Amino acid sequence: MVSSMQVSDGIRNDNEEDDDPRALTFEEDEGEETMPHSPGAPNGGIFDQEWPEVDAFAFALNSSNLLQFVDPNSVQAALSGYDLIERFKNLSGTQLDEVKAAHMSELSHESTADVAHWELEHQTWELFGTLSSHRLDGRIQAQDLPVELANNKHTSNQRLRQHLRETDAKFQEWCLILQWLCTYAPDPSDLFDNVEEIGGKGGWMYTKESLKAEKRLRGKRGKATLAFGARGGGRPSNKITELDPDAPSRQQKQLESEDEDSERFLFKAIWVFLRKGDLKGAKDLCAEMGEFWRAASLDGGEEVWDPMVDGQRFDNQSDEESMDMSENSQAEGVTGNRRRELWKRMCYAIAHRSGAEDCEKAVYGTLCGDFESVLPVCVSWEDHLFAHMNSLVEEYYSQYLLRHGRLSPAALSFPAFDSTAFHSRVGSLAEDDAVLSRIIDSLATLDYVKAESRVPLRVIQGSLMSLRFHELVDELYRQLLTFRDNPDYDPLHEEGSIGVDVTDCRTLRIVVHILLVLQLLNAGFTEDTPFHTQAEFLIAAYIEFLAEAGKLKLIPLYAGRLSPQKAIDVMGVILNKIREEPLRLELLELMRTHNIDYVGCLKKGMEIAFDLTKNHYENERRHVATLSVTAGEILEEDNLLIQGLEWLVLGGEELKAESVGCATVIYKRLLLSGRLAAAKRVSQTIRSTDLIPEGGDVNHFSSEGIMEDGEIRGVFDSEVDQWALAVLVEMEVFIQALDELEAWNELLGQKTDRHPDRARKAALSEAYNSTNHKLGKVLRTWLDEALITVPPFPSQSHIIDPSSIVALRNMYIPELTFALHDVYIMAGKYVSKNLLGNTLDLATVVADPNRSVLKCFTETARVEEYLRALGLASRSVLGISGVSPEKNNNKLLGIWKVR
């Protein structure tokens, strides 16, 4: 946090040439000057949407117990973290339901895209929760196979599989990913609504009827009857003549065309069931189609289980993450296949049989863990990933059985898909940590799924699975920096783009909430880890989005997750966008609630306002167009400075001295550029009567010097702070004098039909007395004492510098003198002729060697101008103002001729 600053404005002196203003979004980075605006109702962009999910996600985060835990490594914190992820998943599910309900009759292109997004986001939160729970579970540790399993060759391999999953983190993770892919696969019932119709025609019905007809025609001895004629006839020679399941492959012949169609449908449907992980559904379909033998053959994928050897088998022991899933039912006797590995090799042989349909090959390839035979039916990113993961899981399990002597020589003598050689670069799936990374990257190169792999949520899913989420965060951070240098940059059209855009609000929201959960669980992106800076920039970018979307009350929640200094930098930018006082007070309370250093934030906001507006005042010609405090326009840069001061004042006792110092700098900028209306706004924002402790006298600060330290100890306890307060009071007195002057001029400008108007004359008299008193006081004493009692400044401070006080006096003292001179002239005309003589008294003040008024006239070369005005006034005093000197020989006039 930047402490009290020096010399006049901001971090550096106003006179420094190299102090380039910085962009609001990245306080550390140089860029073009950017003037913040208060969120209202601009058109276009993110303002076209209400973003209800943004509020919902913020509410879920804010209400999570995860924010309250001191120890992020505790069990309670972990449970709260998983609960928060579950809330995020439920929120995306709710949004999905709402989109579908809102467009129930017909989905437009936009609503279809919304449905697709929320479906993918729901999947993403499920995946993140599953992987987080698994990866943060310290109970998964490698263990040797228990003796009772290692020495008993009769136990089911299923028990070895269970042990492998419980003790091998990689195998368990791959099983979880495979299960996730199955969970979100298309539901077969949604794809096949005519199963019953086709099922009634199953069991090779047409081929069976054809064989029966031929048998009737040939007679009992099988000889052709006269019905076929001399030329013979009968069924085509390429049709099977027997009905056993192996007939087509054994005879190398076909079924009837209707049955061929039914078979193609059946294999396509079985593939869909297997893709869903529903082996039972596939077997039920086979039974409905009349192919009971095929349903029985699918049972070969279940490992044997003998209750006498393996004990009671409970429902939760079913192996749901592989293709040998049980039906979750309690069997009384021995179930399953003792030669499952041999059965898998049979499936591999069928999958590579020539002449078979793609779906048939894919079914058997899925059952045995083959990748190549499944690939032709994969149409989506998930299908391809499923084929890879299914192959990896089956291979990993088979290699585990091989290491423990559970593969029979008969099984090893037949070929199987070598997933190790296909997927690994080190010859071992267990030792290769880059397998998933290569798979995800390979999907991005496939022409028919390349576009899908570039969908932002697919990119996020891939980064989570391959443990490269930090690389995604780094890429988005790189994009932020590129946008800083090139606002027209488009990351989606950049060579090598992975399909994510940091300006996409949904992508940014999801990534930010993922990394926040990881931070809160101490699982990455904390201050002591790499990529912490990148994470903070993304959170800051999301905060900027919230500000632009008008979600200002949500900002402290996310700023509270930043490191203290980053929170100050970010909030300092945001505060300058907010002008409504009720909202300011609420945000101030929210900053306290979320343990944000609000004092540092208020100071930073003021510092940024100084920095952003500096050139607007340095490059402006210094002049006074008018002494009116109401006629001038308050420009955007003026408002920004005043807003920063308004925030500082809300800081209370702790920021009183800082507020006073900054107010003097703001006064200086506004007054030196002639912006008196804005200066009056400053006087209304910070009042000395609200700053001086009870018992203090504001007059002591304006005309009689600095009070004793003891009288204001505790608030303005340093000599510099007291001096700044005295300057502030002088500025207030100056604005009050201009107020009185404007009231006098306004009253003069009012016309009346009655002459003379006693009431008007009385009002003018009263106005004159007040104007003469306040304007005369300023003219005689304004900032004189401040120049005499300048204390030594610390190395850095926000406070007006003495040279600026000299410039202000030179700029305004002559103007005030002329203004007061005119007041006396007009008062002599409308109030009392005797008041004209005050112009001569004023001249004595200007010429007084003990005062500094004459110095101001001398340094600004305006002495001659004043003497001319004084000469005209003197003639009026003598009652001869209308006589031309050239026509009057009276020598008394000579003393009023000014040369």
From TrEMBL:
GO terms for cellular component: nuclear membrane; nuclear pore outer ring. InterPro entries: Nup84/Nup107. The keyword Nucleus applies. Its main location: nucleus. It is found in: Nucleus, Nuclear pore complex; Nucleus membrane. Gene3D superfamilies: 1.10.3450.20, 1.20.190.50. Belongs to the nucleoporin Nup84/Nup107 family. This is Nuclear pore complex protein. It comes from Choiromyces venosus 120613-1.
